[in-house]
Amino acid sequence: MIKKTVSVCLLSAGFLFGVVRLLVGAAMLAQLGGLLAEPALAEGIGNVSQFMAERADIQLLPLPVPVFFANIALMGCLLIAGTAGVFFRKSWGFYCLYGYLMLHGALFVIYLEVNPKLILWVFQCIAVVWLANVRPPIRPQQV
User: Fold this and answer.
1) CB of 30 closer than 8 Å to CB of 17
2) Are 104 and 119 in contact (CB under 8 A)?
3) Which region, left, alpha or beta, applies to residue 112 given φ > 0 means left and ψ of -120 to 50 means alpha?
4) What does the DSSP 8-state code read for residue 60?
């Protein structure tokens, strides 16, 4: 019973985190594209632009700001799809979660950045491994 409860909590948190990533990424892209004009979003874009400029000499792969936010939105889509897939015990759910983890991990490598978010990423990796053992996909019977 506790494994099921923990699984549902992890999947719910992952789903909500995915929704937030998708909405933030989409809002930032809308701001960059001129569809929105929100000062808070402009400030966030300025912070990301400054972060990227400070690391221009050391980053492994220079990403334009819109590509960075598209990546954030894509990670949200992968989290949403992945948690739904794992909830319904589909193997593609884990593939989506693995894709999310790779994209998220790649950002640490690209920017050669170690920050507290790395701890969250490690926790997410452990959670996906745990879910794979506790809620493995159900394979359809072959006829």
Assistant:
1) no
2) no
3) left
4) S
- Structural Rg of the chain based on CA atoms: 17
Q: What does pTM read for this prediction?
A: 0.91
Instruction: Report the alpha-carbon distance of residue 51 to residue 79 in Å, rounded.
Output: 25
Q: pLDDT tens for residues 110-120?
A: 998 888 999 99
pLDDT for 103: 98
The pLDDT value recorded for residue 118 is: 94
Which 3 state secondary structure label does DSSP give 74?
helix
- Please determine, for residue 142, whether its predicted confidence score (pLDDT) is greater than 70: no
The domain locations on the chain are 2-134
Taking the C-alpha atoms of residue 86 and residue 109, their distance in angstroms, rounded to an integer, is 27
Q: Given the structure tokens 């990301």, which residue do they identify?
A: 48
